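Suppose a colleague, Dr. K., hands you the sequence of a protein chain of 328 amino acids and asks what its three-dimensional shape might be. Before reaching for any lab equipment, you can write down a predicted structure in token form. Begin with the sequence itself:
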Amino acid sequence: MRRPPGRRRQRGVALIIALILVALATILATKITFDGYMERRRSIGMLAIEQAWQFSLGAEALAADALSQDLQNSKQDTLAEPWAQRIAPMQITPEDDPEGEPIGVMDGGLEDMQGRFNLNNLARLTPSNQPDPQPLEQFERLLTALDLEPKWAQLARDWLTAGDVPSVPFGAKDAVYTAQDPPYRTGNWPMTTPTELMALPGFGIDRYRKLAPYVTALPTATSNINICTAPAVVLESLSSNLTGEYTGNPDLLASGRKAGCFPDMATFGNTVGPKLLAAINGRFSDSTSYFRLTTRVTLGTTEFTLYSLLLRGQGGKVTPILRSFGTL
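The predicted structure, expressed as tokens, is then:
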């Protein structure tokens, strides 16, 4: 006996509806499962970041203790001292099972920030309240030594100093910056990071990468260069008669610093000579107040980097004054 065509059509529609309901249920179940997985991964990631942050603060405390003890042992800061040595990566183990399987790795190191040219020195004033020409000339020499145009020194000075009118021939103020796309205004304030150089019109990432290892932005316009730790090109930027003195013999500089400060204060002064030494007296030293700690923590698939600018004050007290995460 044949079934009526209408009933067959009803059964076909019912089957299609059932298939659609099964498909919708499958999609919903998959979404719930995926959302649960993602929420769990987010929670694990947030927990790992918080743990890495705490480990990094612990590294800060260790660095502060090392720098404080270093000041008690020696007034000089050299690359031969313990604070300047790289340490092996440290395995992180569970607190309740120190002998158990490591859950991550932490490594890092300290760097002398006064071994670099401080960009904020460009805003230094003379006792008569006039712009100090020495930092500008030094930065121009540093740029030239790195095959960069010296005009960037004047642009950087105008970026730092207040006022609406350029103070130097190659300077620039709001009239130039508001014409950029997108428009913005001059800083007219000390830099907090050397990356502000890329705000100068046309400076670009390539110039910054070439210059970055030799400059810093410290919260003062009167920081000195530590001649015990400064790279050869920074040393030579201090005086116009030092071209090739240290860059021409890098092995001599490297070997001399294995034992302590090289060149020492007396040797450097004699190399510069009495005629030019007067212009840079008080601009260099053999000690440091500002250090940067780089801490890298890896927990599972989470990687965390903390940059801490540390100030070592009188009596050896060390204070973190600036922190940045995963960037300089």
